[in-house]
Design brief:
single chain; 448 residues; alpha/beta; Rossmann fold; twelve-stranded mixed sheet; three-stranded antiparallel sheet; 10 helices; globular; site-specific DNA-methyltransferase (adenine-specific) activity
Length: 448
């Protein structure tokens, strides 16, 4: 489970464990005559000439091109390859900016730092004043709740006080992975239109891993099996977890999602200004046109990541949610800590905060629906914390499935909008939806 500890204040979450429990085990059924299959390794980041089928020979990271000595006798059995997400992406051992000793998480009191702010020569603008006012309201909840969860994590051994002192190795993080999914979605607008009557709404993945760009962009792709699959796109390999589906497209090509006749009961979305330039800025009007009402079932739980800028938070709560017929129920916070339990940034930093906001609401179509309470689910608490060691990859958010399980019906259809990764039981959409599924973010653990 991704939840390490659950307290009244919220949850301490293990993001890395969640990813590796998704089941990235690939069945290599491409056997050679005589019951043998290739023992291949992962293609490197820079090799855009990677082969378009999983069984073909490709250069190895750790050795030369496989030859007869690299063949494995399968004796009629299907070889399996197991991948795990690279743990160095979660090796956050030190704060990004060190706080003063009296501001450390396990010392002082919740009010520390509020009275000892560094003087600024310039005057605060209105946006900064709004941010300070909001921070003053949530600070104590975040401080005390995180403190309790961190103490529990230290007692259980999940967190380590000396982690920052002991860890001295330098993380090696790939700079550029993939060949540009966002650019591919932009180029797809120039492709000939696909006749929807000739194509099914959902394409099921089989053992053939190579797919044309037009096929991948034309309909929802689903891995309905119990094992992971590898998709090769533009010479790059991407791992697709079991029981997951996705649509690779930008906001102008959402029709395949609508064609699937989903009945979404849990929807995760992003307020777009939180994203990098790969998701180009959308106006308020464009954001409102995202067809959330057409996709969502009555009582659907909608959760939106929002930046700490107050005008964005007000827009989501006061304009966007009402436009989507979503009633705002709560604001939660994701708190980012190191392996030693410190905030990744000083809690009272004026530049960036060590937390992000989640706005939770439910879809209500009419008065009758509004009066009807969701069955078999608990009411949404007004405030909760999700505390975790963050991924060093930008915008790789922590999993919410386990923490929200008690607030949604079991075995419901879930959808993430503007996603950058996949997970079992979910449909994901975005123009970089496979970004963090690139095989170079994973390590080939073993052959079974």
């Amino acid at each position: 489970m991704s939840v390490v500890h659950r307290l009244t204040a919220g949850w301490l979450v293990d993001h890395l464990s969640f990813i590796n429990q998704c089941g990235y085990e690939v069945c290599d059924s491409c056997a050679y005559p005589g019951g043998v299959t290739l023992n291949t390794s992962v293609t490197s980041v820079g090799d855009c000439r990677a082969t378009s089928t999983f069984a073909a020979i490709s250069p190895s990271r750790d050795g030369p091109i496989p030859g007869p000595a690299n063949l494995i006798e399968t004796e009629g059995k299907t070889a399996k390859k197991r991948y795990v997400f690279r743990k160095e992406f979660f090796d956050i051992s030190k704060p990004h900016i060190a706080a003063a000793p009296e501001e450390q998480l396990w010392q002082g009191c919740p009010e520390v730092g509020l009275t000892k702010k560094r003087k600024r020569k310039c005057v605060f603008n209105q946006g900064e004043l709004d941010a300070l006012e909001y921070h003053s309201k949530v600070r104590k909840l975040i401080w005390e709740g995180t403190l309790h969860l961190v103490q529990e994590g230290l007692r259980s051994g999940f967190l380590h006080c000396t982690a920052a002192e002991l860890s001295c190795r330098k993380n090696v993080v790939p700079g550029h992975v993939g060949c540009g999914l966002a650019e591919l979605c932009e180029m797809a607008k120039q492709l000939p239109a696909v006749n929807e009557s000739d194509h099914q709404a959902v394409h099921l993945l089989d053992d053939e891993t190579s797919m044309s760009e037009q096929d991948l962009l034309s309909y929802v792709t689903e891995n309905s099996s119990n094992s992971a699959k590898i998709v090769v796109l533009m010479g790059q390999k991407y791992l697709v977890p079991p029981k997951s589906s996705f649509l690779l497209s930008d906001i102008s090509c959402l029709q395949p999602l609508l064609n699937c006749n989903f009945c979404i009961w849990y929807m995760l979305t992003w307020f777009l200004t939180v994203l990098t330039c790969r998701y180009s800025y959308l106006s308020s009007w464009q954001i409102k046109q995202i067809p959330v009402p057409a996709l969502a079932a009555p009582d659907c739980l909608v959760v939106t990541w929002v930046t700490n800028r107050q005008k964005h938070l007000r827009f989501v709560k006061d304009e966007l949610y009402p436009h989507w017929s979503v009633k705002t129920l709560a604001e939660w916070h994701w708190v980012k800590i190191t392996r030693a339990g410190e905030f990744v940034l000083p809690l009272d930093s004026l530049h960036k905060k060590p937390y992000e906001v989640l706005v939770l609401g439910r879809v209500q179509e009419d008065v009758k629906e509004a009066l009807r309470k969701p069955e078999d689910v608990l009411p949404i608490p007004e405030h909760k914390l999700i505390v975790s060691i963050p991924c060093s990859l930008h915008s790789h958010k922590p999993p919410l499935t386990a923490v929200l399980a008690e607030f949604i019906k079991p075995d419901v259809e879930c959808l993430e909008l503007f996603a950058r990764n996949l997970q079992p039981g979910w449909t994901s959409w975005g123009n970089e939806v496979l970004k963090f599924q690139h095989i170079d973010y994973f390590t080939l653990l073993q052959n079974e």
